[in-house]
Amino acid sequence: MGTEGPAAAVPRIIAFDLDGTMWWPEMYMLTGGAPFRRDAQGAVYDSRGERVRLLHDTLEIFQQLAADPAFEDTEIAYVSRTEYPEWAVPCLKLFHVPVPDGGRSHYAHIADGARRPLTLHDMGRHSEIYPGSKLTHFRRIAKDSGVDFSDMLFFDNENWNCREVSQLGVVCVHTPRGMTNAVWREGLAKFAAARGGSAAAAVPAARGQAEGGGKGKRR
After folding, report:
1. Would you say residue 92 lies in a domain?
2. What CATH number has the domain bearing residue 191?
3. Residue 97 lies in a domain
4. Which end of the chain is more exposed for a tag (fewer CB within 10 A), N or C?
């Protein structure tokens, strides 16, 4: 199922943990929960007014995934052990991913068809958001997609999740402070090295302003 050589230097699937990797606070920390809302400035809040923030360079990284030709054939997966999938999914639907510089997104057919902005939820081809082992999550992704584990790249803020998933052959990157340009570049370089390619040098890093984060309960 996998491909070999330099052509495989861009992952066929890039998977992201949610809590503490893409956003903060973690879902279990919220005191209000659903329903969530998005204000006119794009900020997302729970029912008690607590804000859910995308961490660091998360938005810019997803803008790159949406518009960079290098990732046109890459599928996005969300992999989370949260006990609150009924909160996580609405949050994914509320975070918009505007394409920078008036470019065109690989997902334009989704957003244009719905006549609304592209969201993080739209970009997720695979969604494994429920309690349990991430080994189960990735085995389901492999079964559904037909993609080899070695053609997948995974970002997670918990090192023990990375150690566990790496046993399958997935290239894993620890993100102790959430998604930053540094860990993004590290992931692309690590994957390219594992596949014998050089896409990490060809694919530019996303650019963006850092936003605060933290660490919390294992997810």
Report:
1. yes
2. 3.40.50.1000
3. yes
4. N
Average pLDDT per 10 consecutive residues for the chain, totaling 219 residues = 53 98 97 95 96 98 95 97 97 91 73 75 97 97 98 98 98 98 97 76 53 42
Measure Cα distances from 47 to 68, 115, 120, 148 in Å. 35, 27, 20, 40
In whole angstroms, give the CA distance from residue 20 to residue 155. 11
Residue at 210 is within a domain: no
Domain count, the chain: 1
Terminal-to-terminal C-alpha distance of the chain = 30
CA 68/CA 99 separation, integer angstroms: 10
Report whether 111 contacts 122 (CB < 8 A): yes
- What distance in Å separates the CA atoms of residue 150 and residue 159, rounded to the nearest whole number? 19
Sorted by sequence, the CB contacts under 8 Å of residue 203 that are 6+ apart come out as 10, 64, 68, 70, 71, 188
Range of the domain at 139: 6-24+53-202
Distances (CA, A) of 184 to 32, 61, 73, 204: 32, 8, 18, 10
- Between the CA of residue 37 and those of 51, 57, 59, 108, 151, what are the distances in Å? 10, 22, 18, 24, 36
> pTM of this prediction?
0.86
Residue 170: Cβ within 10 Å count:
26
Q: Among candidates 157, 102, 143, 136, which has minimal Cα distance to 13?
A: 143
